[in-house]
Every structure is written in C-alpha cells, then in structure tokens.
Amino acid sequence: QTMNIMSHGCALVMKTTHKAFVYIEDGNGLGDGKLSGPVDVVLPASNEFQDGPYEVTTPFPASTSYAFTPKANGKVWAMMTSDLSSRTPAEIKALYLAVAPTFCFVTDLTVLSGVQSTVSLDGCSLTQGQTYIAHFYVEDGNGNDDGTVAEVLVRVAANLAPNHFGDSPRLATGVTGNGFSLSY
After folding, report:
1. Cα–chain-centroid distance for residue 177?
2. What is the percentage of the chain residues whose pLDDT exceeds 70?
3. What global pTM score does this model have?
4. Residues contacting 106, CB < 8 A, separation 6+
C-alpha cells in the first residue's frame, strides 16, 4: 500500500533527516496494532547555489565583489574573515569573527531563483597580501538555518598593483576531456 504524507501547518526543517513511523490496526480501536520501525525522510537544503559564488572583481583592501545564482527564491548573507575556518549558517548570520563587522558584510538580502546576484563587500580594511575567506549562506528565507554555505578563498591585491583583473578568472564553459574555457 502507499500512503501520501502531506505537511499541512507543519514547518519541517530542511537539510535534516526526519523519522516517519506508521501505525496500523483493525477497525475495532483496541490499540492492539503494529508500529513500524523508523523510516528516514531526508529533506534537502532549503536553497543552494546554482552557480558560484565567485569573485567578480580583484579583491583590494577596501572592497571586492562576488556573483552567484541561487536555485530558489530566498535570502543571502555574506561576510569576510581572516580566520580560515568554515562557518555555520548561524555564525555567518551573526557575523562571527567578521573583519570590519560594521561595514564588510551583506545580511538578509533577497535573491531570486535562477537570477544572478552580485554583492559588494565594502569598507573591509583588508591587509594587502593577506588571505581571507568570504563566507556565503543562502536559504529559503524562513530563518531555519537549513540552507547552503559556500566559501571563497580571497587573496588581497595591492591597491596600486600595475596590472590586475577586471573580472577574476572563472570557468566560462563546462569542463570536458577536450578542455575548458576561462573568462576574465
């Protein structure tokens, strides 16, 4: 037999394994039925990055920009840290260990499914030649911290570098056995 389970008024948290049980008994209502073992119900992340994030401009001490495309409508947060450790959604939302936590971040920015978004991290006061991580988090906007985290390693260029990339190099085509294309 097949039973359809619909979530009406129940906000199931995404990116979580839930347990489902089935109880069956006859029509006499004596409570003498049988309870099944648990069935894992794995829900995917509430939102993911379809493309990116990737650098759009060369990172300089004052600012840098990133582009990405979310898979679904939702919200995005972004921040920069000098600590090269990964961050959880809650830490990114709270700007935990963020550099310049009064300027160099984006919070609660609305994003649209399949539409490329660009965010600028400005006023960062980054150190030339230093390595940082730009942390990004995208979710469906329900505030359950059940979306996807992405990170980009950032190497800060000198402000007056004689040459720099207008757009940071990135894959322009899919990778095949015959090669690939970069755009910059």
Report:
1. 29
2. 87
3. 0.76
4. 76, 77, 78, 79, 119, 121
Question: Cβ distance 182 to 169 under 8 Å?
Answer: yes
Q: What tokens appear for 66 in the block? A: 């990133």
Kindly indicate the confidence band of residue 160, based on its pLDDT and cuts at 50, 70 and 90: low
CA 45 to chain centroid: 9
Any idea which of 69-73, 127-131, 171-175 has the lowest mean pLDDT? 171-175
Give the DSSP H or E segment for 20.
strand 17-20
The distance of Cα 67 from the centroid of its chain, to the nearest Å, equals 12
- Work out the angle at residue 59's Cα, subtended by the Cα atoms of residues 56 and 62, and round it to the nearest 5 degrees: 120
Check: CB of residue 144 under 8 Å from CB of residue 115.
Answer: no
